[in-house]
Fold each of these.
Amino acid sequence: MSKTLPIQRRLRRPGGRSFPGRKAFVLSFIFLWLGFAFAANAQTQKVTGRVVDSKGDPVPGVTVKVQNTTRVSTTDAEGRYSIDVPDLQTTLVFSSIGYTEQRQALGGQTALNITLQDDQQALDDVVVVGYGTQLKKDLTGAVSVVKAQDVKKRQATTVAESLQGLASGIKVRGGGQPGSEAQIQIRGLKNLSGTNPLYVIDGLVSNANRDFNPADIESIQILKDASAAAIYGSRAANGVIIITTRKGKEGPLMVEFTGRSSIQTMPRYELAGTEEFSRINFMAYDNANVPRQNLDLGVNTDWQDVAFRTGNVQDYNMSFSGGSSTGNYLVSGGYFGNKGTVISTGFDRLSFRVNTQGKKGIFTIGENFSVTNSKSDEMSGNPIIDVIRMLPTIPVYNAANPGGYGYGDEKRGRTFGTNPLAIANLEDRSNENLRLRGNLFGELQILKSLKYRLNLGYETSRDHYKYLKKDGFWTLNQAFDPAIANENRAESETKLIENTLTFTKQFGKHSLNVIAGQSYQQDTYAQIWGTKRNLLPNPSGGYYDVLDQGNEGLTGGFRNRTDIISYFGRAEYNYADKYLINGIIRRDGVSRFGPEYKFGNFPSLSAAWRISNEEFYKVKWMNDLKLRASYGTLGSSNIGPYDYIALINTFSTIALGQGQGAQQGATQVKLANRDLRWEELVQQNYGFDAAFLNNKLTVSAEYFIAKTKDVLLEYPLLLSTGNDGGNPRVNGVTLGNRGFELTAGYANNDKPFKYNVTANVTTLRNKVLDLGYNKNKTYVGNTVTEVGQPIGMWYVLQTDGLFQNQAEIDNYRNANGTVIQPSAKPGDIRYKDNNGDGQITNSDKIVVGSPWPKYEVGLNIGLSYKNFEFSMDWFGSFGSTVFNGPRSVIERFDDNSNYPAGVQPWTPQNPNTSTPRAYYASTLNSRGDTDRWLESGSFARMKYVALSYNLPADFVKKAGFSRAQISISGQNLITLTKYTGLDPEFSNGSIFEKGYDFGAYPNLRTVSVGLQFGF
């Protein structure tokens, strides 16, 4: 048996956990303290000073380094620094982004103040453009650069939500549902898939959905035209958003913390209470000569109080970063928690990131790695519609019903509504996702002008969906279903290999940059699911919800794989900083198409002329003027992985033989199109960039023309063709887009009161050029899409006021004297007989409006004075016509839904109203295909407002920090609109009914308090 030395002894506390012996701990601490004390006092001298810019303002965050050593310090918020030096004859090196590096010998001084000079080249924005970077001033294509700080300051789940109004040509629509992902379009609808743009994160083709932490962003570039995006070829038709995540910087360890706590509230309808509801409901039944319901007038339920609550968001992020001249690192972690404003909804996300990079001689290696785990609690149905369908006379609870919840009955409250509390408690839905994403890269500087880069990317996601339905009902006449458990597990993988060579050379006034590369990406996705019914309850009041319980088991699953291989090249030529040419070619091959159509070529060419650098240019008040033009092609293969292959059903059986035994068979159930080929987007772009008044005022404008040919769509076929497995894919539609974008900004930082203002405006017109297969029109819901017009125009009956008396009804005739609405009564809606045939039919429908805004604008304002900062962002959308779906429910009177508070149906005593008479069980005045429900969708909204205060440097230093800021902010606090729904800024997933508010989750009013500090 070995003997334990005293210093190795372990003391034990109750529970068996051990910790180092007390003597060992004390000795170790003494030795460590003495070592530090000795090191700190070994032949060092302290030097202090202050660093300012050319205007005398302090420069925080400047790296102060003792030359040829590892001793480093940084300046605080007031520009002050303190550093220990080995002797007073050494040299200090001062460096900071945007300033020229400065070296200064101490010459025996212990106090040294420095004035840094602006580095004009460094002040030019560096833009990531795919497989490389460019100076913003040298761009020839349409690229929008969004400041990371502008994105991160907003309280949002995803990156897309925060981009609204920050760049021209970008249309974003989101909502307040926890974990929801915003829809984003770049320069209009280019196909019928509704696909979001391509996201490229640190060189990895990925997505920036709800499992990506926006706090990790360093920079965002939006590639809008073909010349900018063509380097990504077949996946860039919907635009490209390039995100670069944060990296460590040269200097000592920097610790940064940001925390924000937010309160969210849901906008609400003004709905009738029991007294008002029952009065109008009785009126509707009386007008229809139908016996009244026996409403429970002793109940007055506010279903919005039942379903809605105050939500909150907790958003915390912390990072550790640093580096040296040979490498850098960043480690960050974050937590995002969102308790939804609707009961039984929420979203949580944990994120962790490690970015490192090191350099040795001509070799550089680095990685970007992140892991996130997110979980959303979801609710079935649509609570926005539920709360307006449910009657105030129905109680929340009813012990006589299975499950114990109230949802009406045939005699006392007939309704299609759903009790939102019942569905929240009787159903449990959750969706959990674990995602790992990252890339490993290596660079070899073969020659001074030639660099090789290998990029290896990998992303994997593990999804787990769980559903439990308990015994009980939540709506009237609901079919019985036993307790059910369902689980769905899926996994996806993306593997990426890229090789690039970059050649950069300066020949006098000639500058050349050439990139050539190869890329291979493989995507796989697999899913399995299982369901069990008749689960057993457990003693605690729940259920045994694992899939080995219950009976009537069902299982299923599938597996997909897609491969894409690419070859690409780009050449950039610059002569004397006056003439710039950029050419790109990419060849992509994808497994989604048949053997003859797998490959596509996507070239582009762009050029720019900087007139302001010509000798004849003498305009002193205009500092820069550059004209740009581009032409290029992009592609899309956004279909299923096997759509060109016939779908076979292997579950079919047939009786064969003398004994008529069942034999296994296989039948083709979906027609296949082996001639599927690429969508092709051809785009032109013409623009200019200008700077005025010593670069304080900048203006950028774009005009673009885009045409998408061979758009992929599912073509409807009759079942009589034998096609019952879904509509086959075809190339059949041609779409056009054209628009104008203008961005202008003014900044003045010459005085203590600093300010900047940026405004952008976008106009866009989309048009269907060809529907294919000799089609001229297609109808979806209340819309028509026809050649020569935008997608999804409103196609409805027109209303023309109300009939006030029988004489008006009798006199409403066509040219032949036929009474058009002979069955109408005073108070009914008069419809326009547009075709003059003497009756109201679908043939009278006409196009009455467009769901697409005529223009959208963004306005961003920033002010600062001493320690105070103020920021405000506005966004506006104007000219669209939208369909108010919830209003078509609560103002119809023909069924049992609630009504708006204060609504005044027509009566002989109340003829001066636009609301028709209340009439039960008839769609005479409530049909959903009329312009009665169409409203202006124009709005202007204050998206964000914030006031921040930077704590004084002396106070912060006493607390041990180098900087600290507190802030209060609000989002969606003010909305100017005539729209009567909850939110004019709604989104839906329908391509053809973009302006239809189905009862979408509104954007929430949010008030936040934040804290940031670093040391």
Amino acid sequence: MKIINNIDKLGTIGMFFTAIFSPCCFPLFAFAASALGLGSFELFGGWTMWIFQGMVLISIIGFFLSYRKHKCLYPLLISIPSMVIIFYSYYFCNNEYQVYFLYTGMFGLLIATIVNYYQNKLHGNCKTCGIYDGKTVELKSTITCPKCGHKKSKMMPTNACEFFYECENCKTRLRPLEGDCCVYCSYGSVKCPPIQVGTACC
């Protein structure tokens, strides 16, 4: 899971690494290369263009995989146009503005990486969490029977409330206590999703 969460960072860091070590192709980063004592040293030689574009594609793959987890479109909405700008500068722009398109795309991907990092951190790596009303909620709740003390862990639904629950041990049929909307709110270790996000219950 950690590898998937960091694919976009690997691509973006690799992209800037390629640019810094290719000062002839990316004059904006020539100062950084000089500060490292590299001068006009070209680390990748004729492979610079292909390595750079490969890193861009790795970043996009990372953003897509992250989206499947946190369902936030912002990183994709930033990164995809940035990728288009970069490839446009390589294949369709052959004038003095090419390098500016390239830098715009690069820093767009950097911004997308920062936004994606925030979203991954916000949603964490919880395996029992889900999305409810656009927010991350814990879906696993352990119901404790008030009569016999039997415990049962269940995954709460996000599209319905459970009003009844039958204890597997003593067969007591549980109902929500007064003021509660479901059995999870009354007997569960975790409240139902609507309560977790602070909205009205079912």
Amino acid sequence: MNFLLLTLTQNSLHIQEKAQNTLISEHTFPFSDFEFPKTAELLAAQIKELFPTATGAVFSEIVPEFYSENTNVTALNASIENLIKHFSELLNLPILTVSELEAATDLATAFKEKSEYLTWNLDYFGYTPGKEEYSVESLLTIGNGFMGLRGTVPEMTLSKEHYPATYIAGLYNEEKSEVAGQIVENEDFVNTPNNQYISIKVDGTDEWLTLEKATLHYLHRNLDLKTGLFSSHMIVEDSHQHQLKITAKKIVNMAKKNNYSIQYLIKPLNFSKDITVKTTTDGAVYNFNVERYRNLTAKHFHITQLLAEKNKAMIEVQTNQSKINVQQVATITGDFFGADTVKTSIGQEIIEQEITFYAEKNTTYTFEKQVQVKASIAKENWETPLLPATSFDSEFAESKHAWETLWKKSDIRVTGDLMSQKLLRIHTYHLLVSASPFNNNDLDVSVTARGLHGEAYRGHIFWDEIFILPFYVLHFPETAKQLLMYRYNRLGKAKENARESNYAGAMYPWQSGLDGSEDTQKLHLNPLNGQWGEDHSILQRHVSLAIAYNVWMYWNNSGDDQFIKEYGAEMLLEIANFWRSAATFDEMTNRYYIDKVMGPDEFHEAYPDSTESGLKNNAYTNLMVVWLFEELENILSLLDTQEQTELFNKTGITQEHLKKMEDIRKRLSIEVNEDGIIAQYEGYFDLKEIDWEKAKEKYGNIYRMDRILKAEGQSPDDYKVSKQADTLMLFYNLNKEKIDEILAELGYDLPEDYLEKNLLYYLNRTSHGSTLSRIVHAQLAEEVAFHDLSWKLYQEALYSDYQDIQGGTTAEGIHTGVMAATIYVTLTTYAGIDIKKNYLTIQPNLPQNWTEMIFNIDHKGIHYDLIVSKDSVQVCPSQDTTVIVQNHPYQLLANNVTTINY
């Protein structure tokens, strides 16, 4: 086993490669004026090239001269811990400190334990206020599906530097704002009162401790993904040189939807004096997370009650338009005060509670705050009295056990790749924070595009559900069903939306919030030129197809016929009826067309020089419509004659309508060129090409090519440029065999290699302006055996939020769609499972550096434990069944492990 010894001096990184105690090679990498993390990235690239076989490393203590000689680094933000973290992630290796090496009895075991820690923990060292800090807070968010708390330390308040927030699933409010000279209405995801604030003041000083004004010597924030525990460790010095060690722990109880707890430990390091602790219940907060929304109306609630007595405080607020009530009750306790010693003041919007006590040097004092949060949108929960929380430890024990249950169902274990393992767990964690089987099944909500982590997209629910739902379908079917009920409960509103636009059936909104109204904004800010322009994304009617697909996906995987009979068939029929009414017959071509839509691409809103928005015959939309009409037949066959009659009476859909759907299904139009390229929409081939190299040279980051073109006075409508996979999304949703069938039924004859040709054609014209784009392309690239391309795009998608590759979007909340999609592609593309067929089908295709995957899924009511390696699959089903491995059927016995070699 080869490992590296890394020694950092003031102007070089010296590396020794060792096998046990034998020196194999060594090298010195010089640098001048170390910049962090830029220099670390350059050094890591060189190390990977020179030492490709290393399995771990040890990092020596850093000499003081390193910080005095390199003016761009500080011991706060470039501590040895932070350097180890970054080098470990860049090299994809476990790295030990010298003390960890000395304590180890066996080096291999020490590296294994360090790897285990790294894949279950998220660590941040130092403090960089602003957008980078906002991103850290998003990734450190804790929650339980009902509420989410951003990953701030207790001393932080709402500002441009950092943003504590408390979000509740389904909590929306609509307000009017003046934009570009006109009044617009926007429905927003509401930031609720902040009960997390705690700070101290030492006797003899006149200011409360803040990160902005104090001298911060050390800050380490950790999120334990396994238990949902957030902790921060800080050494800080106020303006009078009082040094303190402050440790904070925070959990949202996964087992109890209403509870969160904070434990706050204070230790004076160089003094003994009176200390005053202050905690607040702050109703003065407002929405501030997204910079481009800050000029809009930001206050979404008014206070209806503020009460406090002894060690308790209560705030109740009501949203201004939606009239939703939120109540927060806080109880404070500690080992240095009693309830009678709490000094309370109640203002117009805030309750302040203070305790003054004498603190001895080097003694630790414990303060706890238990907060219970309720919202009237969860009606039964709102009306049920809650038992008071007792202590941080008891709340944490309950929550930890609940997390253990969730991880048993959802963890994917990858051998051979530390960072992929870590990122898959980060993604799984944040999905469980966004919706959980413990706390969502009685809520009328779905998963927002940014989880319970931030305010981007105003917390709305989009077509991202098509990427998100499969995670729950595979692991927590009851939660998937609840998320689909959010859509069923808004079917009436979707029918209203269709009628208002002169369509039949159900037309679900592009952006959905509280009641299922269309909540897409009418104007969009281009940050490159500061101008507001019209937003036509409402025309992305394919959101209804995403909902239909998820209904089918849930039913097809769970076998829940009862759901179909009670809810699903009605949704599919109404959505299909909408598309029937959207199709028009063209006697010239003897085919139907669908116009006035936008595809998933989003950059194209209209034809060049057109005064009307909307496009004709978007390939993704049309072929998914054909798929829907086909599947509708299968779904309706589940209903007996009486059930069908009742359904047709309820929906008003007739046999004539069904015959029309069948005709559309066989004659819907798409455009295909002589090379077998399926046009993104009719007329796409007439657009101009972009000089991509020139654009990259001029702008660097060209992800949002639409904004660049508009800032230059041009339009993306004129160019063959896509934000993300559009036509290619078909192959993410459906097996190629299914698409082949659809194309054949429509009468289109494409060459054998048309998928490869389409993949390369659109890859060369896609800017990946959405993080979802890479993961879709990664799956398709693997399907056509472009393994290196697949791996590159997959890795970019895995890292997209963690490294905030879009330059600040993670600050506004994590991307639930891409997090769920990376998990789905890991299982379906690399482990090779196919859940769309009657029997579980497995065709493993592990990446080169992965040796094994261990995971479990539910399929057709059967629970499977699986281990997939390069040459075998181990399967243990909960019932007798058949699985298909590498195209061969195998009979399996319940609760027996079967090893299948290939």
